[in-house]
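Protein record

Derive tokens from sequence
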Amino acid sequence: MNKTLLIKSAVIAVIGIILLLVLESVSSTIWERKNYQSIAKNSVAKSWTGAQNVFGPILVVPYSIKWSWEEWSDDGKRKILRHKSRKGKKYILPSVTQLQANIATDIRYQGIYQFPVYSTDLNISGNFSAESIAEQVQVTLPNRSAKLTYAQPYIAVAVSDARGINSIPVLKWSTKEYVFKAGSQLAFMDSGIHAPLPTDLLQSINKSTSKAANKGQLFPFSLNLSLRGMDEIKFYATALNYQLSLNSPWQHPKFSGDFLPLSRTVTDQGFDAKWEVSSFASNMEEKIALCEKQQCEEVLKGSFGVEFIEPVNVYLQTERSLKYGFLFIVLIFVAFFLFEILKKLPIHPIQYGLVGFAIALFYLLLLSLSEHLSFMLSYFIAAFGSVTLISFYLVNVLKNTKTAAMFGGLLTLLYFTLYIIVSAEDFALLMGSSLVFIVLAVVMMTTRNIDWYQVNAVERQ
């Protein structure tokens, strides 16, 4: 076997490994910039608000129980009267909750980074069943002497970041209005608001439900909650029948969570989505019942809503294109190697390396430009610079302008194909694997008639 050819192949392989390390360095730079972006996002969230989760409204009825009992003393000679008390809360879900939200979006900037934020008016309405309230406020007493006392009930609405509440909402309960106060008064999610209701509410409910004519009495409620947030807004199905309607001019929504919309429309003018979730699907009644027993871990599981994703994530797209960087370098090296064999024009390993570094520099240039320009324009500028530099260099290396132009055209085609692959998110893997297969097929067809032993013989002459 030709020793010179073997040594040269080994040197080119070493250069390829070095270039692979260079590409890994570019990949580390991408992750570093993504971390900077995350820090900038946290900074915006501190001055604006973070993602919002909306829980409620639900009716909360605090209560306390006091009871006493007699027991024998330790020596068994006398009876001792013991006293004990316990406090708790009953959580009552509305029969129906209807929530409509028109979400206005905007962009906030932190340095070179930009992030989508939103503000919305949540129009919430629904009703409670008097019969359901009377049934669910029942508390099992420890003995006959126990005394049950109900405290003032209230309507609670919890949000994950109370800084996003823009104004003080008013609760309309039946024919009266009540002003909300700060704090949800919910142990499992205390950030939010609550509206105290009349202390005699339960007494009036018990009286109404005792009459057969009032068995189906409903207590309608409504409120308007002005809320702002960032990135996403999600909800919990806190009703026996929970209906949610969202619309926004944002063109790139991502519907996520445990429940997808019953219907949705996404156009260039924005999106419109509707959910309808029953308590059978959300299992919220059982979760609430467990929470009354101080087991609230499951209550805040099962949210759903929408994420306001950015249409173009430059770091993700640059990272995708970088995955094909080593393939580009290998293709150019293979083209050079075949050119040497077919045209018998030697190319020095250093020249291999310089062309490979020029290709690797393309990704760093793309990353830096895309932080300030659109990804498409950044890609065009970086690709044009890379192709121009390599083509101009190859004019002297290959001693032939036409051949250098051919390599430049090949590189242009590769960059164009890579852009198509990166832009086609759903078909990126299919297109990428197809490209590799086609390239391998072309190399095999081009070299199928080469007598590699004869190539060695030519090298020895």
In short: Residues 97 and 126 are 4 Å apart (CA to CA). Residues 50-308 form one domain. Residues 3-47 form the longest helix (45 residues). The chain has two domains: 3-38+314-460, 50-308.
